[in-house]
Specification:
Layout (H helix, E strand, L loop, with lengths): L1 E3 L9 E2 L6 H15 L4 E9 L11 E7 L9 E9 L2 E9 L3 H12 L1 H37 L2
Parallel strand pairs: 1-3
Antiparallel strand pairs: 2-6, 3-4, 4-5, 5-6
Length: 151
């Protein structure tokens, strides 16, 4: 089960109407990933809003996890959840998991000296590769939503 942390929300929720399911979104993301040769996997899972004291009473919700199949535990995962709000259904995006290259980048900067510089340079290359992946996934998700909203 994933934790939906307020500090890890990505942007504002998007109104997607009521005719789009997380399965629809997963299918579109997987299809576009294959077409664009972008390594991406999806999985339906459970998540729970973790907003402090009341988190004990929050019921789990279904979420769509979008992740790099070769970097499941060292890249961030995107978590998508649907929430009814203001008479519509909104899709929210959260970060899940951790990124090892971002923590190495911070470690390299804090260590300084020759070793810190080596860790920082190698971390920067991995961080740039990881950023490029996130950009590609964001474009892919935007296209998937556009396809689903225009049908």
């Amino acid at each position: 089960m994933w934790a939906l942390l307020p500090e890890r929300i990505c942007g504002q929720p998007v109104n997607i109407g009521s005719g789009i399911s997380l399965n629809d979104l997963a299918s579109q993301i997987n299809m576009l990933g294959r077409q664009r040769n972008i390594p991406v996997s999806t999985q339906l899972d459970q998540a729970k809003h973790n907003n402090g004291v009341t988190s004990l009473f929050n019921a789990p919700v279904q979420c769509l996890v979008v992740y790099h199949p070769n970097h499941r535990s060292d890249y961030y995962n995107y978590l998508f959840v649907q929430q009814p709000m203001n008479g519509g259904v909104f899709l929210s995006q959260y970060l899940g998991g951790n990124s090892s290259s971002f923590s190495k980048q911070i470690l390299g900067k804090s260590m300084g000296g020759i070793f810190g510089g080596v860790v920082q340079r190698s971390g920067m290359a991995r961080e740039q590769e990881e950023h490029a992946y996130y950009d590609a996934i964001n474009d892919l998700v935007a296209q998937a939503l556009s396809n689903l909203l225009s049908r």
